[in-house]
Amino acid sequence: MTARNGYVSLAIEASLCSDHGVPDPTIEENALADLPTEVVAGICELKSIIWQELVPSDPLMTPDAALSELLSAPAQTAEQLVIAKVADTVVGIGMSHHPTSSANANLLTVTVEVHPSHRRVGIGRLLLRALLSAGRKAGCDSILGWGPRTTATNSFWNAFGMSEVQRSSRSRAVISAIDADAMANWAAASTARSNGYRMRSFVGACPNRYMEIYTTALNGMQDAPSDGLAANYEPLDKLGVRSSEARLADRGGTGHVILAVDSAGKAAGLTEVAMFGHTPGVVFQQTTTTLAEHRRQGLGRWLKAEMYYHIIGEWPDANVIETGNADSNTSMLAVNAGMGFAPFLSYTIRQCDITRVVQRLEVGGYR
After folding, report:
1. What pLDDT sits at residue 6?
2. 118, 50 in Cβ contact below 8 A?
3. Same domain flag for 6 and 98
4. Do 242 and 303 belong together in one domain?
5. What's the pTM value of the predicted model, to 2 decimals?
6. In a domain, 266, yes or no
7. Residue 226's pLDDT band (boundaries 50, 70, 90)?
8. Domain assignment of residue 282, given as a range
């Protein structure tokens, strides 16, 4: 590898593209912390084109939003960004991350995006090869491939023998269309309220006095549907929380959390959202969970209703709430549907042994 203007150029055979009459791309790796302005602009343009292909009615992605997406990997992970350029134009990006020290340190999560006009000529294959090469050197032996559930994405992962293990949906609710009376009923009807449960909230970093409640509630996600994903649940502790808060701040976001506690002041559940300066009209719903022993009291709906009141009170200019859920998480999907969420994009998650994918790459894999 040789450095050039902040890049690390990867020595990767690229003749596959010329076999299809396309100029060989340059495949370059760059540190996320110091992306050159022209690279950010190129990535932003590419991501905007791909996003509008998926959701044509959405506005173009801003540079700040593109940067935020590049930093969306979980905290405490090692990340890699690989860029494909043809004639100095960014035509593809590949991203991967893996935990630096956990039971999932062997698991490499990968996304590959290629410009619509440059697909099926081998660029995705070159990006994947670069990511897997670095992942194997880091000790990863399992790949988790992720992306929108489109014909192009499905064909790409299928070519490497990667089976789909989970589907998820991205959904939106128009805030003005949410039934305020229904939210009032959700809050009032919860039997948890009459059983002495209470709500606590904070904005930004979690106060130390709430840390045990917050981490306990977050770790209630360990029984969320995994659909056969070969991954271990990683409990969050204070260090993990602080790392995640720092990552959110790096992305230009601020977290807003509502905690549910029982009559003894113990954690019962939570809901949390994030707001970003680059998309002021959108509230991004993060985790919502109720601990198993506190379910069947309407607590999840009460939490959602409280967050609705918080949103309309704190962000009058917000017009949409956006969230994502595994398609198998029927209980949360039912709550969201009752609030007015509707899916607008489907995602696929694939998993496979890295060695198997590398073997497919070596024999031609995907054209």
Report:
1. 36
2. no
3. yes
4. yes
5. 0.88
6. yes
7. confident
8. 179-339
